[in-house]
């Protein structure tokens, strides 16, 4: 993985790294989404719409620094366009921003005692996905199994590289719902998995406490291959319960590490397992 650096950091002296990364990501993403070259004036206006208030000269200096880094190329007087190196850097920036946002979301959840929100979400998924996997066992073809195997292989490779592999996790469960054939259940699962940043937060939590999503998926897939509905439902149930235990474990660690977090978590939660020690 290429080293991620904030381009033109002196231009943003005093700003947190999170802000600088988010700004770089927005600038490169905006350029990538345009059909042609983009000038500093256009970027300044679009950045303001996204909450980044920078002067046109500052935007221009950052663009020139992106060009020096090889992320942009100047196209006459029309502006600048993204290079292949810039596209690679944009992918890395997107991953970094997602990780930073999920870390912030975790912090915010601990601050307000949001453990119960995550546990209730996982409990709803546990009930829903038991029925989804039962239907998937009935309808799965050999081609469906191969598709899931490819997703799992990609997930394992990303995890081995130190990534969260959130996209593969989402895809694995969505494909199971697709195989099951019940469009309502699939839509409901989609709604549950799209609640804010919970998908990233839960995966981040599990990585912090040592849980391994890919291992659970192997068990689910093996039961699907064997066309064993009871075993498949048990594998899904175990998977979601492990996630819930990891959430509990993470919160216990957070409470022990910070008296402030303990106060917020006890005061903000609704009481499952939370009591201040005296």
Based on helices, strands and strand pairing, what is the structural class? mainly alpha
Helix content: over 70%
Kindly report the name of the CATH homologous superfamily of the largest domain. Answer: GntR ligand-binding domain-like
What's the CATH architecture of the largest domain? Answer: Up-down Bundle
Calculate the mean pLDDT score and round it. 77
Shape: elongated
Straight-line N-to-C gap: 47 Å
- CATH C-level class of the largest domain is Mainly Alpha
Detailed description of the structure:
By secondary structure, the chain is mainly α. It folds into 2 domains: 9-98, Arc Repressor Mutant, subunit A; 113-262, GntR ligand-binding domain-like (Four Helix Bundle (Hemerythrin (Met), subunit A), Up-down Bundle), CATH 1.20.120.530. 73% of the residues lie in helices and 3% in strands. The chain has helices at residues 17-33, 40-49, 56-69, 84-112, 115-139, 142-160, 166-180, 183-193, 198-209, 213-225, 229-257, 259-268; strands at residues 72-75, 79-82. Strands 1-2 form a two-stranded antiparallel ribbon. The longest helix has 29 residues, at 84-112. The protein is elongated and about 65 Å long. The N and C termini lie far apart (47 Å). Mean pLDDT is 77; it is low at 1-16 and 259-278.
Break the fold down into its secondary structure elements and pairings.
Blueprint: H1 17-33, H2 40-49, H3 56-69, E1 72-75, E2 79-82, H4 84-112, H5 115-139, H6 142-160, H7 166-180, H8 183-193, H9 198-209, H10 213-225, H11 229-257, H12 259-268
Antiparallel strand pairs: 1-2
Helix pairs in contact: 1-4, 2-3, 4-9, 4-12, 5-7, 5-8, 5-11, 6-7, 6-10, 7-8, 9-11, 10-11, 11-12
